[in-house]
Amino acid sequence: APFAPPKVSTGAPRAANAQFVLERSTVLAGSSRIFLEGRFPVSGGPGRLTIQAPSVPFDMLTSLYAPWRERTVSGDSASLSVELAGPAGGLKAKKIELGLKNLSLELGAGRRIANADIELRAVDGFRDIEVAAPRGSLIAYSNAFSEINTDFRLVEGDLIFRKLNFTWNQTRIKLRLCAKETAKQGRVYFDGSFDTVRIDELYGAIGNIIKHRRAEKTARGEAVDLTLGWAEGFRWSIPDRFPDLSGRLRWDRGHSPNF
Length: 259
Prior knowledge:
Blueprint: E1 7-9, E2 14-16, E3 19-29, E4 32-41, E5 47-56, H1 58-64, E6 73-74, E7 77-86, E8 92-108, E9 111-123, E10 128-140, E11 143-155, E12 158-168, E13 171-180, E14 187-198, H2 199-219, H3 230-237, E15 244-255
Parallel strand pairs: 14-15
Antiparallel strand pairs: 1-3, 2-3, 3-4, 4-5, 5-7, 6-8, 7-8, 8-9, 9-10, 10-11, 11-12, 12-13, 13-14
Helix pairs in contact: 2-3
């Protein structure tokens, strides 16, 4: 078993005011405590159940969440709170809150999240999702993004980044953006700034994107034109469903050796 069988410590649930009440109960699962509270009408009408796990070891989390079993994942601890509502035989999640401390996760294809603190809140069956990540780094397409500090919300198909700050190659980047109709091709409106950029490193980053996109297309059996120059190659490396962009970027300083 991935963890020791739980031990339950609770008084017997009682009927009060025509309701079946589960007072704050404790379930011990290994070194973790899970707290349960609930209230259901005796008549069988809709009720509620709250499940809270203030501190869950990552080895337990990966054993419960199947997709993470195949990836290298580590962290300090996780916290989970779930509020369920509805008839006793048909409870549905009304609110989910998940906290991950010092998360490191292999995403595959050379992509990795490291040392991230993440807070997620979802309500109404994931129709409204809020995520805050005040710390962390990301490696993707042979580029490293550090000092990530972001806060975004996904609601009714719109993705709103109230803050997306990070550092790339000693360039500090600050963005705010709104992606409309993310389920479709959509549109992206943005406002942001970056302080200084090494032009040669920017060309190198674009070259890495081209190389990785070509490799992905080749792996899918798609034709790849290797004769395109870097500008055309970058254009055709952009996915067909990439959204329209509109906004403003402020660039403070630039530098390129021998140019």
